[in-house]
Design a protein that fits this description.
Blueprint: H1 2-16, E1 26-27, E2 30-32, E3 35-37, E4 44-48, E5 55-60, H2 64-81, H3 86-102, H4 104-115, H5 119-136, H6 139-142, E6 146-152, E7 155-159, E8 166-170, H7 178-189, E9 193-197, H8 204-215, E10 223-225, H9 230-238, E11 242-248, H10 251-263, E12 267-271, E13 276-280, H11 286-298, E14 308-313, H12 318-329, H13 349-364, E15 368-371, E16 392-395, E17 398-400
Parallel strand pairs: 1-5, 8-9, 8-11, 9-10, 11-12, 13-14
Antiparallel strand pairs: 2-3, 4-5, 6-7, 14-17, 15-16, 16-17
């Protein structure tokens, strides 16, 4: 049985190396009240494979009427869903995690095609989200309240946990499976209903997850998916029926969302842009440190919150420089579906242009490029791919890598 499973996985990955595109590209659908429906909007955004620049699908700019219909469906579903026993909600999550495991390869291929990260990274993307689904399977214990007797003479206190109502999630491009899975599984298992807005750049994984959630038994209207850009984000912030919002993305977008949603009295959490620094002491383990620096600096093309953009070598960087450059050069830059790829393309042409501007700015400010990969072409058949090879800018005691600087929708 194990042999058959391995063979099936191998076939999936081998066929995934040459993604099949529809002509014309398919339209991404909304999920409203349990139905996957095409938007009536006349405007859309191309979802582009960053390795090849081929159009994968088209994301609609959901109309105000469609958005209102999604909120109305969530509000109606909440009336019954909030009173559904927590054990019943848990069982949906048990089935959901089973289906995610079943379709792990399918999700990974979609993420790699739309976002660009390697298949290994894409599977990690799904797995980190799956861990949250597994956590939601224990909601019966997580939702327990507290009771304290006789806190004062003849006075007992107790707390209970109740669902809020309609909640919403606004997602970035860098983890198209993990971050939606951070959001809606916990929310709906607590008894809330949910409006999900995936990134318009790579919505495919979120749509697959929505299909799996429906297959797992999530009732109509409990999860709804809408698409768009700033207009839909503002609608989410402004709608009186949406009680809470979770956001992951850039500082600029996060501060706007927090201020606008808070002004309407909503509960709001914003996980915003990060810039991580590493400090290497003279007695650090050489091998372990170099491996960690390369993985942290260049994994996922630097498009993640834990990317290490700056490292400070205490005592000077000269003893480290040559070996660090050697290991960085060994990374294989290629489309994420290609076997052995270490570094895929960045998400958009605008992102690549901004990265190159930041690199040039560093050089003009006195940094030395010990390794410059701005003009990399992964393969002859991918001249339009948005690849940026490993880049190292060196000033005194600093090596800087600029790939995780935020663009219009940067990762957290």
């Amino acid at each position: 049985m194990m042999k058959l499973s391995i063979q099936r996985s191998a076939r999936l990955l081998s066929t995934a190396a040459v993604p099949i595109y529809r002509n014309p590209p398919s339209k991404v659908r909304n999920l409203i009240g349990g139905e996957f429906v095409e938007s009536r909007s006349g405007s859309s955004i191309d979802v582009v494979n960053p390795a090849t620049q081929e159009v994968v699908s088209r994301t609609p700019l959901t109309t105000n009427e469609e958005f209102s219909a999604a909120v109305s469906a969530a509000k109606s579903a909440f009336i019954k869903w909030r009173h559904t026993p927590v054990t019943t909600r848990q069982r949906v999550m048990f089935k959901f995690q089973e289906l995610i495991r079943r379709d792990m390869d399918k999700l990974a291929v979609n993420i790699t095609t739309e976002q660009g990260k390697t298949l290994k990274d894409a599977k990690g993307d799904v797995f980190r989200g799956l861990e949250v689904v597994e956590h939601a399977c224990g909601m019966a214990s997580l939702q327990m309240g507290e009771y304290v007797s006789n806190v004062s003479n003849g006075i007992d206190t107790y707390s209970i946990r109740e669902p809020l109502g309609v909640c919403a999630g606004i997602c970035p491009f860098n983890f198209p499976a993990m971050i939606p899975l951070w959001m809606f599984p916990m929310a709906v298992t607590c008894g809330n209903t949910f409006i999900l807005k995936p990134s318009e750049k790579d919505p495919g994984a979120a749509m697959i997850l929505a299909e799996l959630a429906m297959e797992a038994g999530l009732p109509d209207g409990v999860l709804n998916v809408v698409h768009g850009t700033s207009d839909i984000v503002n609608n989410i912030c402004d709608d009186d029926d949406i009680r809470a919002i979770s956001f992951v993305g850039s500082n600029t977008a996060g501060m706007h969302i927090y201020a606008r949603a808070a002004a309407k009295g909503k509960r709001i959490q914003t996980n915003m842009g990060a810039k991580n620094h590493g400090i290497v002491m003279p007695d650090a383990s050489i091998d372990a440190t170099l491996n960690s620096l390369v993985a942290a600096g260049f994994g996922a093309a630097g498009q993640r919150c834990m990317a290490l953009s700056t490292v400070v070598f205490v005592g000077g960087s000269r003893p480290w420089e040559n070996e660090l450059v050697k290991r960085a050069k060994a990374l294989k830059v290629n489309a994420g579906v290609e076997a052995g790829s270490d570094l895929g393309p960045v998400i958009s042409r605008q992102a690549k242009e901004r990265i190159c501007r930041l690199i040039q700015s560093g050089i003009e400010s006195g940094a030395r490029a010990v390794l410059d990969g701005r003009n990399i072409v992964a393969k002859e058949r991918m001249p339009e791919g948005l690849f940026v090879d490993v880049v190292g800018l060196k000033k005194e005691a600093r090596v800087s890598e600029a790939k995780n600087e935020e663009d219009s929708e940067a990762p957290c």
